[in-house]
Design goal:
Number of helices: 5
Strand content: under 5%
Structural class: mainly alpha
Helix content: 55-70%
Number of strands: 0
Number of domains: 1
Radius of gyration: 14 Å
Order of helices and strands: HHHHH
Distance between the termini: 24 Å
Largest sheet: none
């Protein structure tokens, strides 16, 4: 979405987060390894992407998302062994 500026108000974000939470909750089982869940961090990552509304990194997202740690975001997104294909398939079904 380079070159597109979208104005979101705080009420828009709360409505979006509610809908995203609903979709995300249906996919949380896919964000698990045998010993750990990355579901909390994955939702914080999504929130950071929406709040920043631009390209960013985990440090920037952690600054704008409450109770967030950039290292845990980084680990959840880049180091976790979960497969994105079941998540994509679940979203398509919804």
């Amino acid at each position: 979405m380079d070159g597109i500026n979208i104005e979101l108000h705080i009420n828009d974000l709360f409505r979006i987060f509610g809908k995203l939470r609903h979709v995300h909750d249906k996919c949380t089982s896919y964000f698990r390894s045998k010993t750990r869940s990355a579901a909390t961090q994955s939702f914080k990552y999504i929130r950071g992407k929406f709040i920043k509304q631009e390209r960013g990194n985990m440090t920037e997202y952690a600054k704008v998302v409450p109770d967030c740690n950039n290292q845990s975001l980084q680990n959840a997104i880049s180091e976790s062994p979960w497969d994105e294909r079941p998540v994509i398939d679940q979203i398509r079904e919804m």
